[in-house]
Amino acid sequence: MGYRNSRTRAGIGEACNFALPTPPSGRIGCVCSGRVGALGQPDVSMVGAQVMKKAAFLTLISLSFGGCITDMGEQLSDPKPVSADSISSIALQGRTVSFIVSCTVGDPCWRFVRSDYSISGRSVAVTVYARRISATCPAVVVSIKAPATIVVPFSGSYTFRFWRYGGRTLDTTLTIQ
Q1: How far is Cα 157 from Cα 9, in angstroms, rounded to an integer?
Q2: Are the C-beta atoms of 21 and 13 separated by less than 8 Å?
Q3: Is the pLDDT of residue 68 over 70?
Q4: β-bridge pairing 19-21 and 169-176
Q5: Measured distance CA(48)–CA(79) in Å, rounded
Q6: Bridge-based pairing state of the strands 80-93 and 19-21
Q7: Cross-strand pairs, 161
Q8: CA distances from 79 to 98, 111, 131, 138, 152 (A)
């Protein structure tokens, strides 16, 4: 029968993590030459304080890091609306309008996810969404190109309103034949 001693040697800091057969004397020793007390247990007179310090430090680090992971996970997984700065191109084909829009993002780690639109009468509200794909990026404001394809129900004149920060919109009016 074996005994697994996972305590640390007093004063030196080496771990005794070996499964040893129990000797005939019944006393349990440690492969890394730790002192053995009268009852067969390792002498851990100074180890308790060291272990507690290490445990407190590791707990503090893991709680702090765990909070960062949660925050980054939400930040990386949730698409956010991004502000439309300009319309780079417009293509018309029947009742389908395709836009390429330049949008401002906080750093180069943002990527286009989707464009949503809703039609109310002759007004089309368009919102572009992007997602951050990395937690470590230089804090430099950049633009990304985002496609938006919209099918209008009837021919006629439509105002396309692209969402911007601060409740503003980037507007353009097109006549669809």
Answers
A1: 83
A2: no
A3: no
A4: unpaired
A5: 48
A6: unpaired
A7: 125, 171
A8: 21, 9, 5, 20, 25
Give the residues across from 149 on adjacent strands: 98
Q: Rounded to a whole number, what is the distance in angstroms from the first to the last CA of the chain? A: 88
Q: What is the H or E stretch that residue 63 is in?
A: helix 47-77
Maximum alpha-carbon separation in the chain: 99
Average pLDDT over residues 162-174: 96
Query: Which residues have C-beta within 8 Å of that of residue 110, sequence separation ≥ 6?
Result: 82, 130, 131, 132, 133, 142, 144
In the chain, where the domains are located:
2-76, 80-176
- Does 65 have pLDDT greater than 50? no
Q: Is the pLDDT of residue 61 over 80?
A: no
Q: If we measure between CA atoms, which residue out of 89, 92, 91 comes closest to residue 102?
A: 89
d(CA 101, CA 98): 10
pLDDT tens column, 79-101 = 999 999 999 999 999 999 999 99
Radius of gyration of the chain (CA): 32
Torsion, Cα 34 40 42 48, to 10 degrees, reads: -170
**Placement of tokens 């006549």 in the chain:** 175
